[in-house]
Amino acid sequence: MAQDEDHQIIAKIEQSLTSTPYACSSLTRLSGGTANFIYRGILQRPLEDGTKTVIIKHAEEFLASSKDFRLTAERCVIEETILNALTTLPPSTIESSIVKTPYLYHFGHATHTQILEDLPAAQDLKSFTIAHGHDFPESLARSIGRGLGEWLRAFHAWTEDDAQRGLKGKMCADRFMAELKFSVNYDILVQKLQQFPGALEASRDVFEKVREMSREEIGKSQGEGFGLIHGDFWTGNALIQSTVLDRQQQRPKPTPTLFITDWELSQCGPRALDLGQMIGELYMLKHFKNLDAGLWIIQDFIEGYRPALNVDMAFRAAIHAGVHLVAWGSSVHGWGTEEQVENLVSVGRDFVVKGWERDLAWFKKSALGCLFSDEL
């Protein structure tokens, strides 16, 4: 975006906050916002609890990263709705990690601007893992994975509470985000046949059947394994304090806090989509960067979720992980060589095909063997 346009947006935000407790003395643009404009604001006056900084998330009728990509700014109303409801979901707190959603202080409907709780020195989990590379401690990776899995299981269970019936009905009534998620995953899956015919053409029939299965699941909220989901649950939307490793020598060790952010794609559908997207992203850390932390987090992520996992959900999660690798993993610029990308597409193909065929023996010998415990 041109600098003058960015200044116009900042001016709009500052004007909208002038008469609120969230008026800021400065705004600093943060990296990582694809759909929205994200800033850290220094408050002119601390809040009653001593808070001095907030995160400001502003939506326009287009993507922050691409003005030509039109997308209704009303998407942030979805996020406001669920974030307000999520104040009743306690943080997932285990000995080694705390996982929660940021508190929504304020929402300006006229300007589509959210004021959110700030996690100091925050970095998304994907960037954090890559930055620390092979020095990433296994114990920290596993505690992060366990915390994410337990939190996701608690969130999915919370959505089924009678108290959330109204929320679920409201979220499921709007199919736009569910249809968007279907399109950018399952339509793209089939389109990738043209880009990688050597690796994928023999699987065309399965890919098309998987797409039709997913089409029938759009907006589905009833039945085991279906309900209200995050909808964009991946390492880019899990924030962690970048300083946590600097403090690992402290005794007792500090407990890392993670924020689960970006709820605009929240929708009704298969809960396995939340599992599969996270698994797919973590797998790519191992595939492209040879980072064992990706697999360690996967293993304990699944362990944290396991009490709610059944064999049908496990196969569906494996399929979606494969779809993610083919549709998204093959499109990440600069991650790896052409050969690595083609190999990833082949791995994704196998996850999709073997998941569709429910080939338990194959999966138990694969990188996703941890999905399929003997108890399933």
TrEMBL record:
The keyword Metal-binding does not apply. It comes from the Eukaryota. Keywords: ATP-binding, Kinase, Nucleotide-binding, Transferase. One of its GO terms (molecular function) is ATP binding. SUPFAM superfamilies: Protein kinase-like (PK-like). InterPro entries: Kinase-like_dom_sf. Belongs to the methylthioribose kinase family. This is Uncharacterized protein.
